Amino acid sequence: MIIERNGCFLLQTLHTSYLFNILKSGHPEHLHYGASVISETQYEEFLKASSFGDGSESEAASICLNNICYSLSEKHPAAGGNMISYSDDFPGIALEDLPLEISSFGKGDIRDPFILVTHENGSKTSDFTFEKASITNDIQAPSSLPGSYDDSVKTSVGSSEDYAQQLVVTYKDKEYGTCLEVIYSVYPECDVITRRAVIISANEKIHIDRIMSNQIDFHENGLVFTSFHGRWADEMHRTDSVCDGGRCVSEEMAAGESGSRSNPFVMISHKDTTEDSGYCYGFNLIYSGNHYEALSSNGYDKSRFISGISPATFGWTLDKGERFETPESIMTFDMNGANGMSRHMHDFVRKHIVRGKWRDKNRPILINSWEASYFRFTESSLLKLAKEAAGLGIELFVMDDGWFGKRDDDKSSLGDWYENKDKLPGGISGLSKKINDLGLMFGIWVEPEMVNEDSDLYRAHPDWAVQVPGHAHSKGRNQMNLDLTRTDVQDYVIESMKKVFGSGDISYVKWDMNRIFSDCYSKELPADRQDEFMHRYYMGLYRIMKELTDSFPDILFEGCSAGGNRFDLGILCYFPQIWGSDDTDAICRADIQRGYSYGYPQSTVGAHVSATPNHQTLNTVPLETRFDVASFGCFGYELNLCDITASDKKEIKDQIDFYKKYRHTLQFGHYYRLDDGRCITVSDDGKKAIAFMLQRESRPNRDVVTLRTCGLDDSKTYHITNRYVDIDLKTMGSLINMFTPIHIKQDGIIHNIANSVVKVQNEREDMTAPGALLNRVGVRLRPKFGSTGFDQDGDKTGILRTGDSRLYIIESV
After folding, report:
1. 334, 280 contact by CB (below 8 A)
2. d(Cα 312, Cα 292) in Å, to the nearest integer?
3. How confident is the model at residue 786, as a pLDDT?
C-alpha cells in the first residue's frame, strides 16, 4: 500500500512502514523504515484511502499520516556550528545533519553520496529537489536490466487485501535541469520494498561518477553491519562489524562479478539481535557485476546505508536527453531477528525474482559427470554411469565439461560449440536419446561467455576477446572473456547456444563462468567511455540470458561461476537455481549453505553429494553426512557410481527414496537457522518439518543434546523421529573386540565378513510433543556413544562421531 498526503509518503507492507516527507526546500527527509507505525485498524483505514481503492477519501487517515510525519520529522531551528546552511531562504537546513532519501555533492551533505555527476563545466555540485510523484498499481521493471515482478491477480480491494504498487518520485536539479527518478515497489505480503533510480540528462552532456540504487538514513549509530565474504570454494562466511564511526564496506570493485569475495546480500541490525529476536534489516541487489554496500555513521548519531554499482570501476556518459537506470535494490525488515528477515527475503525471491516453469516446481535429483570423469570420458563411460544412476532412482543425467571441440583439458576449445565426435559419435542428439531411453532426463554443461586462444573462434575473431590492444593480457584458467558489450558477440553466443540446446532432448543446462575479469576493455568503446565496459557487459549478458530462456522455457537452467562466484538475484531472474560452491566437502558446505540461507531460499542453491576423500579438501566425511547436508538444496550426486561398493549403492538408493518423500519440504519449506549450526525447514501448512544436526566435535560424556525448533505450529502436536541408517561395523575399530567372543583383526577376513553381515543402526528417536514445547524449550534426544559404555541396543544409543549428522522428521499427529 502506498499513500501520499500533503507531501507525506507512506509505503506500508503487512508489518513494516516506510515514511518520508518533502521539506519546504524540496528535499526529501527520510523519517522511518522498520516496524509498522500504524495499528491493524489504522491499516484498514489507510487501505481505503490509498490510490489502489475506489477513490474514497478517509479524512482520519490523512490526518493520522500528517501527524505521524510531523512527529517523526526533525526540528532544526538553525544549522549547527561549522555546518553548511543550504541556502539563505532555508538557513536552518543543514543537509549534513538531516536523514535524506537521496543525497548529492556540493550543498553541505559531506556523507557518502547517492549520486555524483560531473557537469559540462567541470562542477560536481548537484541540487535535486522534489518536482512530482505518481502511484501506479502495476510493477514496471527496468528496461535494460532484470527486475522484480508481480504476477498476482488483482481484484477489488477488500478489508484484508493489498497488492504490489509502485511509486515514482521525480527530483530535478534546479541549476542544470537534470532529472532523477526514484522508483519504489511495495510487495506487502512479503514485507519487501524495492528501490531503483533513473537519471535523465536535460540541457547538457554529463558524466555519472556514481549513482546508487538505495539509500537509508538511520536515526542512530552503533549498528551492526553483516556481510558475507570468502574465496573460490569457500564462500559466504558471515562477518559482523559494529559501525560506531567511519564506514563499513562490502564491495566487489574489480572482479567483474557479484563474487565469492563479497556477496551483494548484507544485513543491518542492533547489537543484541539474534536469529530469533531483535531488529534486523536485509538488503540485496538485482545485479551480477561489481557492487557496493556501505554503512557509515557520523557525529550526529546518524547512520547511512547505500548500495548499488561499485563506483570504483564505473562511469557513464549521458548526452542530452539520454537516460541511465540503476539495478533494483531489495530491502526487508523484521522485529524477530535474522530468521524473520530471511523468511521475508526467501518468500520474495521465490515469488518475485525466480520465474518461469521451474519457479514452483520440484527440482529433479541429478548425477553430474564432472567428478566422476573430469575431461576423460566416452559415450560408453557416460552411459555406464547413467545406467547406475537410473537404477538408484536418480532422475537427471548431466554431461559436464569436455564434450565439445577438441576439449581434453582446460587449455582449448572454449567458443567452439560443436560436438567432439571422438567422444560422442552420435552427437548430443544420439546421447540424449540413449539417456532418455534409460528413463533419465538429459542435461549439458556450457561456458558461453569465454574463449580459449586455442580455439577456432579466437583464430577467426581475436577482436572478440576482452584485452587491451597491443598489451599483454592476464588470463584465468587459460581462458579469456568474450566482449559481450558488442552486439555481434551477443548474437554469436545466442545463435551458438540455440544450436546446442536444440540439438537434442535437453532438460537442464549448467551455465558456467570460470574466471573473473582482468584487463577490462572493449575495442568498440572510445577511450573516454571505457569506464562503461563492465555495466555494458552485463546488459549484454542479460539480453543473452533472456532470449535463451524465452526460447527454451522448459529447460531448467542452473547458473555457475566457478561455484558461487556469481550467486545473485540478477542471475536468479533468469536461472531458477545456482551452484552453491565448487567445494562439496559436507563440513565446509554446511557453513557455506548456512551463509546463503540468510538471503537466498534453499530452492535456489545447488548442492551435491560427492566422493570421499573429498576432491577439494581430501577430508573423509560419512556418506550419510554428505547426504544430510546436500538435501537442504537442489539435490544431486557428483561421484562415480560405477566405482562405489554395493553397500554404498544401497545407502544412496535409500537416500534418494527419502529425499523424494520429503523433497518439497526440503526445497520449498520455510527455512530457519537453529543453534549450533543446526537448521530446520517447515512445510507451508506447518504439518511437516525436517531438522538437521551436525556433530562438529565429538567429546566423551557429553550425551545430553536438546533439539529446539523454530517455525512449528504451537497449537499442533508432533511426532519426532530420526532417519534410521545402517552404520558400518568398522566404524567401531578395534573396540569391537570388547563385544566379540574371539579376537578380530582389523580389516582381516573375519572382520570383513562380519562387516558385511552384522549392521549397527543409529539410535531411534520416538517422541510426541506439542509444537509450543518444541519451539520454546525443545526435546532431549537419546544419548550417543560414550566410550566403553556403549549400549549395543540401537534403540537406546547410537554412534555419533565427529563429522556425523542426523536428520529428524517432525510430523503433526
Report:
1. yes
2. 9
3. 61
CA 244 to chain centre: 28
Whether the CA torsion 75, 77, 83, 86 is positive or negative: it is: positive
Q: Is the peptide bond before 700 cis (omega within 30 degrees of 0)?
A: no
Distance CA 216, CA 93 (A): 19
Is residue 97 annotated as a catalytic residue, yes or no? no
Is pLDDT at 789 greater than 60 in this prediction?
Answer: no
What is the DSSP track for 429-462? HHHHHHHHHTT-EEEEEE-TTEE-SBSHHHHH-G
Q: Quick check: 506 and 443 in contact, CB under 8 A? A: yes
DSSP letter string over 470-485? TS----BTTBEEB-TT
Write the CA distances from 627 to 655, 670, 692, 737, 807, integer angstroms.
7, 20, 11, 30, 10
Contacts 24+ apart (CB under 8 A), 337-340: 337/273, 337/274, 337/275, 337/276, 337/277, 337/278, 337/280, 338/267, 338/269, 338/273, 338/274, 338/275, 338/280, 338/598, 338/673, 339/275, 339/276, 339/672, 339/673, 339/710, 340/276, 340/280
In this prediction, residue 785 has a pLDDT band, given cuts at 50, 70 and 90, of low
- Alpha carbon distance 725, 654 (integer Å): 9
Query: Per-residue pLDDT tens for 322-332?
Result: 999 999 999 99
Q: Which of 150, 512, 585, 628 is catalytic?
A: 512
Residue 679 forms beta bridges with which residues?
673, 692
Strand partners, 481: 450
316: β partners: 208
Those residues whose C-beta lies under 8 Å from the C-beta of residue 745, and which sit 6 or more positions away, are 751
| Dihedrals phi, psi of 398, to nearest 5 degrees | -120, 120
What average pLDDT does the segment 639-660 reach? 96
CA distance readout (Å), 530 to 184, 193, 257, 526, 584? 31, 33, 17, 7, 38
Amino acid at 274: T
> In angstroms, rounded to a whole number, what is the distance separating the alpha carbons of residues 174 and 777?
60
User: Given phi > 0 = left and psi -120 to 50 = alpha, else beta, which region is 211?
Assistant: beta
pLDDT-based confidence at 429, cuts 50/70/90?
A: very high
The percent helix, strand, coil of the chain (3-state, each to 5) is: 25, 30, 45
Helix axes 487-501, 533-551, angle to 10 degrees: 30
Any residues with CB less than 8 A from the CB of 378 and at least 6 apart, and which? 423
Give the amino acid at 81. Answer: G
How many angstroms separate the CA atoms of 172 and 180, rounded? Answer: 6
Give 55-84 pLDDT, tens digit per residue: 445 677 788 899 999 999 999 888 888 999
**Phi, psi for 649 (deg, rounded to 5):** -60, -40
- Determine if residue 356 is left, alpha or beta; phi over 0 gives left, psi from -120 to 50 gives alpha, anything else beta: left
**Segment 517-539 mean pLDDT:** 97
Distance CA 479, CA 178 (A): 42
In terms of C-beta density within 10 A (0-12 exposed, 13-18 middle, 19 or more buried), how is residue 539 classed? middle
- Alpha-carbon separation of residue 794 from 56, 299, 723 (angstroms): 69, 63, 13
What three-state secondary structure class fits 486?
coil
Q: Is 582 a catalytic residue?
A: yes
Tell me the C-alpha distance between 219 and 98, whole Å: 9
H, E, C per residue of 749-775: HHHHHHHHHCCEECCCCEEEEEHHHHH
Question: Whole-angstrom Cα distance, residue 217 to residue 31?
Answer: 9
Point out the catalytic residue in the list 234, 582, 628, 713: 582
- Work out whether the CA dihedral 132, 40, 269, 264 comes out positive or negative: negative
* pLDDT tens for each residue of 292-308: 999 999 999 999 999 99
Which CA distances in Å does 377 have to 372, 406, 432, 443, 644?
A: 9, 13, 15, 16, 18
Residue entry with cell 535409500? 654
